[in-house]
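Per reviewer request, we include the raw input and output of the structure prediction for the construct analysed in the revised manuscript.
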Amino acid sequence: MSQPRVFAEPVPTARLDLLPLRVEHATEMAVVLSDPALHTFIGGAPLSPGDLRARYERLVAGCPDPSVTWCNWVLRLRGSEPGASCLVGTVQATVAEDHSAEIAWVVGTPWQGRGLASEAARGLVAWLGRRSVHTVVAHIHPAHLASAAVATAAGLTATEEQRDGETRWRLGPGL
């Protein structure tokens, strides 16, 4: 198999710019991700700006496994007023050499309910498809109805497979 040759690059959608993750995003993103409720289904707790910066340093450095590529973006909401744009969440894709990707998303609590996660996930899935990624997978807690709606909007379908208490959603061969 060939190694994945995808690297995060800017992806525009109707209201968002998916911007490749930079370490400098940590300070603003620590505020965006500060609501403990965001961890209801995924566990853990909000990270401090310093801890998030360290995490972003690891992510930006890339996966130590050469057969895997980590692609991470922050979501910038474009505003109609000057200076109104702000970061509102993240999306990520872990792309394997078999041209499959596992994706995830999170939108900060103040921006939820506006369809931003669905828009970002659709943009991400379309971007992956243009890069010959033929299978996209997400793992979602069965009680997380909002994430299930995002996966559906992005074209994924729930499977019967479970992993660590989460349902495997899939788009591509072998549905």
